[in-house]
Design brief:
This protein is mainly α. It is 53% helix and 3% strand. The chain has a single domain (2-117), classed as TIM Barrel. The chain contains six helices and two strands, in the order H-E-H-E-H-H-H-H.
Length: 122
């Protein structure tokens, strides 16, 4: 918030954390470098676009819809949960090279449930 308040003209501020992106944009930030956009690109775009046009009600609705997924993406070291989710969605193979390792069973189960809740998996 200090950076947003004190930034010089033309200095853009982007969120580096999906879970804070809505709040940052509502306070004047310009966007997000998103992890969730790998899984739900349209919805992340729509949230940012809604904020950009001042439609915070629509952006808030998307934010809360995706919040569980946003948090699960950092349940373990990034990009492990995202890679597991992408594999569950059939978008990549689930293979890991050191120093990455497969997610815990708990993370995998939670990710599958979150993707089902978002109607991305059956």
């Amino acid at each position: 918030m200090d950076i947003l308040r004190d930034r010089p003209p033309g200095f853009q501020v982007l969120s580096g954390d999906d879970a804070f992106a809505f709040a940052l944009m509502a306070l004047g930030g310009e966007g997000v470098i998103s992890v969730c956009a790998n899984q739900v690109p349209r919805e992340m775009h729509d949230m940012a676009a809604s904020c950009a046009r001042g439609d915070y009600a629509s952006a808030r609705k998307i934010h809360y819809r995706l919040l569980r997924l946003m948090n699960l993406n950092f349940e373990e070291s990034n990009p492990v949960p995202v890679k597991a989710a992408m594999a569950l969605l059939g978008l990549c193979e689930e293979s890991y090279r050191l120093p990455m390792c497969p997610p815990s069973d708990g993370t995998r189960v939670a990710m599958r449930a979150a993707l089902k809740e978002l109607e991305l998996l059956q």
